[in-house]
Specification:
This protein is mainly α and 88 residues long. 61% of the residues lie in helices and 9% in strands. The protein has one domain. Strands 1-2 form a two-stranded antiparallel ribbon. It comes from Virgibacillus salinus.
Length: 88
């Protein structure tokens, strides 16, 4: 399994993801809040802009950006990644 994000030199670098692994997505979804999952589902997977997502969720752009930062922090955490890998 490849990681969604890898932290290098204080920069997040996107890596290839196995998109056809339902177990990975199930475990990831189970570990996130609804807002964090919406950020992944609509923004990352669906390509929706932050502004569009903020309008859809009736919130601010800052709130949506916070969801994204929270997800990125979780995905770069070695502990979180091990938790997801061992569950799948």
């Amino acid at each position: 399994m490849k990681l969604l994000f890898e932290k290098t030199s204080n920069t997040l670098v996107s890596l290839p993801v196995i998109l056809h692994d339902p177990g990975l997505w199930y475990q990831l979804r189970a570990s996130l809040t609804l807002n964090q999952w919406n950020w992944i589902y609509y923004h990352i997977i669906g390509g929706m802009t932050i502004s569009e997502l903020a309008i859809q969720e009736n919130t601010t752009i800052e709130a949506v950006n916070t969801w994204g930062r929270q997800v990125e922090m979780m995905l770069t955490s070695e502990t979180f990644r091990k938790k997801i890998i061992t569950r799948t």
